[in-house]
Amino acid sequence: MSSQLDTPGSATSEWLNGLTVQDLETDPYPIFQRLRRESPVAFVPAIHAWIASTWEVCSAVADDAEVFHGGTSPLHERVFGAPHVLGAEGPDHRQLRAAIDPALRPRAFRDLLEGTVRPVARKGIERLRAAGSADLMAEYFEPISVRTVGDVLGFADVETDTLRRWFHGLSSGIANIMMDPDGFAAADAAKAEIREVVEAIAARVATAPDDGVVSHWMHGGAEEGRTRPLDGLYPSLHVLLLGGLQEPGHACGSTFLGLTTRPEQLARVVEDPTQISRALAEGMRWISPIFSGTSRIPARDTELAGTRIGAGQTVWVSYGSANRDETRYDQPAEFDLDRSTQAHLGFGRGRHVCSGAAFAPQVARIALEELFAAFPGIGLDPAHDVEVWGWIFRGPRALQVHW
After folding, report:
1. pTM as predicted
2. Which CATH superfamily includes the segment(s) 4-402?
3. pLDDT, average across residues 124-149
4. Closest by Cα among 98, 12, 93, 11 to 51
């Protein structure tokens, strides 16, 4: 078993040795394009782990439950705690998903879409209407995302700004790849606030269960008259809040940005809102919100795409790279509403597929429907550049627009 990376001093290994985390965060696409071409499974010293970069290899890892188990890392455990849903397998994984998934299934949130999500979006539009310009990420997409996800998870009483602070705090922690001790301060503060809120919710739902994730965890599968302790929930709740709070907002931001690169397609979507779901699928392929946010760990020594990987080593599954695989898509770097296939790996694949795969696109759809209905002439402000950032989670940092 061998690969280009097994040859000391090869051009590929020398290039990879020079990569930095900053390179990955600022513009990962040229890096991953070269990885797909030269070494679909590559060890990257900067992150002390392997990266899987093609559609075929990412799918193979996600589908192989026997060899590739849920992944964790010292960084994940420092930010989220352990064990968490990303790293769990078997009964532990099923138990955690049983607490998380019910609130995010279509039959559970169907009424919430029109009863809660659309009113939240319309309130956001009213706040924007008088301004004439805005940062869509900070002033519209993110607030809708965190508010609606917070509501469906049982955090309706938590202020939107607090939910945003939790998201940004946890996000800063997971971006601290080098594990600088000072880089976890915001994440630790967010977790302390989350614990305080969850304890208050738990006191309420202990005798009056509801549909929130805390209640499902406490009561689901517990003996009659007893509840499960909260300590087992917190790590997975931190994962869920980080992934869930950002996903609809980043999906909106990436889709809007993509449409602005194709003005004729933007005009079509504004004219025909039934095209928004199609645009969102392409937006999540083009810039995947969970770019490389999933890892797997082989349970035994194995070979992947001709490369030997030892048991226990971390393999980052880069769905964001797979979604730009040239063997899967024509002109994958381009946003194209008319792409022949809408299938993408933006929500992952297999038993660890994202719990919000059904909910997030519906929230994003409503947010864009209301935006385009209110401001059909909306466009990017040419005075401001757009920075898209991140390789674990990726999306526009800001979208300055006018109408």
Report:
1. 0.91
2. Cytochrome P450 (1.10.630.10)
3. 94
4. 12
